[in-house]
Design goal:
Blueprint (H helix, E strand, L loop, with lengths): L6 E5 L5 H11 L3 E6 L2 H11 L3 E5 L7 H12 L4 E5 L2 H7 L5 E3 L4 H19 L4
Parallel strand pairs: 1-2, 1-3, 3-4, 4-5
């Protein structure tokens, strides 16, 4: 299956993980539209860039990744997303069907999660991006 280049917004409050994720995504053949570190910056970047997918740290300081996604969806509609966290249990409680990656993660897990998120939205909407 040929790879589809998608535009991805990276949100992580760890100053080393965001750029690392950006490098991994470029390595995987995707475009990184922005790397931000807070809930408010995530919402602003999503509205500005309209990414195809968001990689969202669930625990942001300041803010919260789950709340950020709720705000983004309210402003621009559904966006495929993958939560990344050291605590998947808390994500599962608030968003039972979330696609989520446990930190630390492997590159192939990121790629698989991206495909799952994109397929999930395509299946719901009945079209491909």
């Amino acid at each position: 299956m040929p790879k589809q280049m998608i535009s991805i917004l990276v949100v992580d409050d760890d100053q080393s993980i965001g750029p690392l994720l950006g490098d991994i995504l470029v390595y995987l053949g995707h475009a990184v539209c922005a790397i931000v570190t807070s809930e408010d910056a995530a919402v602003a970047a999503a509205v500005s860039h309209r990414p195809d997918l968001i990689l969202m740290d669930a625990g942001l300081r300041p803010g919260n990744g789950i709340d950020a996604m709720d705000r983004i969806v309210a402003l621009i509609g559904p966006v495929p997303h993958v939560f990344i966290s050291g605590d998947l249990k808390s994500i599962g409680i608030r968003v039972p069907r979330a696609i989520a990656l446990q930190k630390p993660f492997q590159i192939d897990q990121i790629e698989t999660a991206i495909h799952q998120a994109m397929d999930q939205v395509d299946n719901i909407s009945g079209h491909h991006r």
